Amino acid sequence: MSTTTLAQSANSEEEIIFYDLMCAAPGECWAPHCWKTRMALQYKGVRFRTVWVSYPDIKSLVGHTQPGNPAPTLPVIQHGATWIADSWQILQYLEQHFPSPPLLLPGVSAQTTHFFQCYCESVLSPPVRLCILPKVPAFLDDRGREYFIRTREAALGVSLEEAGRGQTVNAIRVPLGPLAKNLSEYGPYLGGEQISYMDIILLGFLQWFDRADHAAVQTILGMFKSDAGEPVREWYERVKHLAVTRPEAEGGV
Ligand SMILES: N[C@@H](CCC(=O)N[C@@H](CS)C(=O)NCC(=O)O)C(=O)O
Q1: Would you list the domain boundaries of the chain?
Q2: What is the pTM of this model?
Q3: Residue 28: how many CB atoms within 10 A of its CB?
Q4: CATH topology of 5-97 equal to that of 110-242?
Q5: For residues 73 and 21, what is the distance between their CA atoms, to the nearest angstrom?
Q6: pLDDT average, residue stretch 221-228
Q7: Is pLDDT at 90 greater than 50 in this prediction?
Q8: Rounded to an integer, what distance in angstroms lies between the CA atom of residue 113 and that of residue 236?
Q9: pLDDT tens column, 166-183
Q10: Domain 5-97 listed as CATH 3.40.30.10
Q11: What b/e string do you get for 32-61 counting C-beta neighbours within 10 Å, with b at 16 or more?
Q12: Using CA atoms, how far apart are residues 91 and 97, in angstroms rounded to an integer?
């Protein structure tokens, strides 16, 4: 995806405007990449205000931040005259302008965290994605629902229901295995002793799955059991407080 940081002149005191993806429930975050940005902003205690955006409005509102991309994406933030698209670029910006508390820990290189994000996006999430996609329209706003079904079915070449047929969350067991092992041996967090952006990345995906299918996430959390406990479930219990949507007064677009 092409990403851009437009202008470079915000001061850290200025409120950040966060463009997040709307669903039918007002003020509810649900989309995995937007969750990452929301959790990062909240963890760092950054002052921000959300503009909730329906799928078909993304292009007109923030398309200028992603030139050449016919289907621009959220999250996007605006800080003074500076616009930043893409959750990873946003994280870099927040680490630079709001360094405390850090989400990129000194002992874990940014490159390693980026690799972890790529792993979650390309290896961990796809097996569950087809189970989850048919359940997303049910909680979207009307215009978002129409857009979602039309664009996803065009990309898949079949209906969402057909794409989901026969798929089960058990397909995540193999790609989740290394994370469970890592948590058992090096936890309590994915980056070791402290919460880091790696926890936020995995939690963002699980929040999305949970919004679509709560029972599926309970199955995922219970996949790894040993005499020492359930490492993934125990980790989830430790970090789930990060995934709250702070109530705000303003509405969407
Ligand atoms: N790599 C991007 C991916 C962002 C992304 O795919 N966002 C989804 C919402 S979670 C989106 O805006 N999709 C718009 C569309 O599909 O038209 C990031 O991490 O920011």
Answers
A1: 5-97, 110-242
A2: 0.93
A3: 13
A4: no
A5: 9
A6: 90
A7: yes
A8: 19
A9: 999 999 999 999 999 999
A10: yes
A11: bbbbbbbbbbbbbebebebbbbbbebbbeb
A12: 10
Contact 87, 36 (CB under 8 A): yes
**pLDDT by residue (tens digit) across 23-69?**
999 999 999 999 999 999 999 999 999 999 999 999 999 999 999 99
Task: For the domain covering 110-242, report its CATH number.
Answer: 1.20.1050.10
Which of 61, 65, 74, 197 has the most ligand 1 atoms within 8 A of CB, as the residue to mutate?
74
Atom of ligand 1 minimally distant from the CA of 75: 20
**Is ligand 1 within 6 A of the CB of residue 86?**
yes
Residue indicated by tokens 């002992």 = 107
Distance 196 CA to ligand 1 centre (A): 22
The average pLDDT across 80-109 equals: 96
